[in-house]
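Table 4 source record.
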Amino acid sequence: MPPKVLNLPHLKQKTLKTKSIFLSVFLSAAFAFAAFSAAPVKHKFSFNLKGLSNTKCYMGFYYGDKSYVLDSSNVDEKGNFHFEGDSIMPGGIYFVLLKDKKYFEFIIDKEQKFTMRTDTSNFVKYMKVEGSPENQAFYDYLNFAAAKYEKLQKLQDSAKTPAQKKEVKGKMDSLNISVKKYKDDFIAKHPDYLVSEVFKAAEYPDVPDAPILPNGRKDSTFAFRYYKAHYFDNINFSDDRMVHTPPQVFFDRIKEYFSRLTFQIPDSINAAADYVIAKARKSPDMFKFLVNYVSYEYETSNIMGMDAVFVHMVKTYYTPQIATWESASHMEKMQERANQLDPILIGKKAPALVLPDTSNVMTDLYNVKARYTVLCFWDYDCGLCQKEIPQLVKWYDSIKGEGIQVYAVEINDNDVYKWKQYIIKHNLDFLNVCDLFHTSNFHHEYDVISTPMIYVLDENKHIIAKKIDVKDLNGVLRNDEKVNERKK
């Protein structure tokens, strides 16, 4: 059975709004990793929790922004339980979850057999480790940091007057420096520990003062450009263990880079994806995760035009030579989907469409003379269409004479009489067409999976917007006009 997704306190689960051919494989990448075995070496992680008895505990792992239960174990009357198996567990930060949702984390890496003992009243304070120097070092740091944090809290609570606050700030700075020194010493002493990579990943770029331009002013864009260029300086993309850490360690940094540091247009995101993925070429699990994450994120994006990123990812990375983790059947489906979307990306010329109108006269979309053409696929028998089409009629009546035409494709050819009656009853003063002779494949070519579906085309029938609502039409047209003005 697949592991169960958890809702841990610091982990935000993403709600899926659309179906995706990519989703199952994206998740299976996480599920499958526990079964990977480089050698038939048994692992065994033993625990003793004072204050716990005759219950069940769970062992879980992180993958990107999600966490999964991997195994369960019965706890005896003395608080003993363990997890074992005949495979080498991939390196990363794992957790033990209690039924009351309390949990503590531990590290799996080179040591595949160890024991951890603690008390449910305070996992960190009472933790003792046998057989894993890295976990002992990890909890030594957690106890050190907890003590420093307690001092910081007391200092903050004690400061009442401005003079006291100034004095306290100096002491707080001193405490922060001591924590920084502890981490630096830890990294120097244990350069191969996962905790060292986590410490380094927490460091963000320090931006120097902006240089002075020839005009005597500071370069106003320097800070952003420097910050973005050095954003990943302290993250080791050659370490597969980073994928299996809590999201704030690695995943959140990736997400911020794409959502806040990259311009939200497909070309910029494609370049960012290639840049980040190239860093992970030598790390199989990291490489697979990044390719899968970017592909899935933009295949399911609600932002218009981002399907161009999905197409780029599939064409660039989903080949038998590169995406070796993919099955041939699933890769074929992804390539078919990308090939379907490619011709209808924003900026591409709309596929040819010639359909008969209500008088059986063949009407060519390319021959529509208009500054903008609103291409609408609809169905007289569709409940949502019965709400939206009258709105489209109202909108069209308000902009007549402004060089805009509506080419309305009725997708339901079951009852031509009903279609024509609907047109008359609701005053659809459009170019009304229907595939009466079954000569078109527009369902596939325009990815018509629901109705109504609206595309907006420019004078040369290039797609400038797609799959939008009637209420968005004015904004789309205004934006395109502004873009054209800037080009002049």
